[in-house]
Specification:
16 strands; alpha/beta; globular; 16 helices; 38% helix; 5-stranded mixed β-sheet; 408 residues
């Protein structure tokens, strides 16, 4: 009694409408031509031999035509499929091999600069395994201060979560960096100062701590001092101190600085030590493109589908953050090392308050940065914010109804 391969072929039906990777296409073509073959169900009657010579190009250093990373050269030579059981087994293995879930995901290295709530959407997306859902194998790296952007420009990583205040000067120096999604487009810092500083006038001659020159704390401190009516170049001294924990210690214990801008929830630790808030930037409603997901135009041109899927992952992460607080809180607690339940809840609610469902970068926020940068770099005054963002991927998802569909 003959059994046709067409009875087994439904196993491969999920391939219809799926994107088959370049390396697997010869195999799928071969199988489609094999549907007319017939064989006996007995080992003694007939042996069906399928010689499949496949060449799979895999290289950690290179990419295929579709932008995916390639494995090293691996060759599968002779497959001898004998009888019904063997053919069934072989087709199941082949399906697993070429199915979307089975082939290697695209590696993507993403850097971030600090354990602050403004970076949290990256962690939530990672915690919810949404990168993996979209065929990306992420490596999320903590790279202090400006190291992440430097590594991205050098090609060591592909994306980073940084402020536009760091991105803009790099563009003026010739780097091809752009922002593809926004995480935070208004500053949420508090200016925390020593007890004896009661008014803005008392800031004159004082030392304000920043993490490092050229970082978002440097830029935002200068912006705030200007908005308070003082000259950041003449009326205060900016002192490069280090990351947030060092900043707190320098203000509260070492007393080497007189004040600093600090994000929630960390500023509460300074307040608990006797410091007080002189200005709340969250209440000042200043358009300022702070953190966002950045990449290079070179990487977009080379791997547009990887960028598309990364943006889709972040947008799904925003939805997950809103509908599943437990996952979001787990990610925040892990990265920010928060153990207090109230502090964790406050941090989560703050994240909900500023993350946009449709995370378009703020062009007005970029203009604020250009105005500040223009005081030192005249060319910045004529910069066009549209040149510093690439919103095609959000726009595609928005126009298709995908984003709105998540919330129905």
């Amino acid at each position: 009694m003959k059994m046709k391969l067409t009875r087994i072929f439904p196993l491969l039906h999920p391939l219809r409408g799926e994107t088959v990777p370049q390396f697997a296409r010869p195999l799928v073509v071969m199988l489609s031509k094999a549907k007319h073959l017939a064989f006996s169900g007995c080992y003694e009657d007939e042996i069906l031999r399928l010689r499949l010579r496949m060449t799979l190009r895999h290289s950690l250093a290179g990419e295929d035509e579709g932008g995916g990373l390639r494995p090293r050269w691996v060759q599968c030579h002779d497959f001898f499929l004998c009888g019904t059981g063997t053919v069934l087994f072989a087709l199941v293995i082949i399906w697993l091999f070429v199915s979307k879930a089975a082939w290697a995901s695209d590696k993507l290295r993403i850097g971030y600069s600090g354990a602050t709530i403004s970076n949290a959407m990256l962690w939530v997306t990672e915690e919810g395994k949404l990168f993996q859902k979209n065929g990306i194998d992420p490596e999320v790296l903590y790279l202090q201060t400006t190291l992440g952007q430097t590594a991205m420009i050098a090609g060591e990583i592909q994306m980073c979560v940084y402020s536009a205040s760091l991105l803009a000067p790099a563009r003026f120096q010739g780097a091809d960096v752009v922002m593809v999604t926004s995480f935070l487009n208004k500053p949420i810092y508090r200016l925390v100062v020593r007890p004896e500083i009661r008014t803005v006038a008392d800031l004159k001659g004082k030392r304000l701590g920043i993490t490092r020159f050229g970082t978002v704390t440097d830029w935002t401190t200068r912006l705030l001092v200007s908005r308070l009516g003082l000259d950041p170049e003449k009326d205060v001294s900016l002192v490069q101190v280090g990351d947030v924990p060092v900043l707190l210690t320098s203000l509260t214990a070492a007393k080497t600085i007189d004040g600093a801008i600090i994000q929630p929830p960390y500023y509460l630790k300074a307040v608990a030590s006797g410091m007080h808030v002189l200005a709340n930037m969250q209440e000042m409603d200043i358009p300022f493109q702070q953190t966002g997901l950045n990449t290079t135009q070179k990487f977009i041109a080379r791997s547009p589908d990887v960028v598309r899927r990364a943006v889709k992952s972040i947008i799904e992460g925003i939805h997950l953050m809103r509908v599943n607080p437990a996952v979001a809180k787990r990610a925040i607690a892990k990265r920010m090392q928060i153990k207090d339940e109230k502090e964790l809840e406050d941090s989560y609610q703050l994240l909900r308050s500023f993350i946009q469902v449709k995370p378009y970068p703020s062009l007005e926020g970029f203009k604020t940065i250009f105005a500040e940068l223009g005081k030192r770099v005249p060319a910045a005054k004529n910069a066009d914010a549209k040149d510093y963002v690439d919103t095609r991927f959000i726009e595609e998802l928005d126009r298709s109804g995908f984003i709105d569909g998540l919330y129905k």
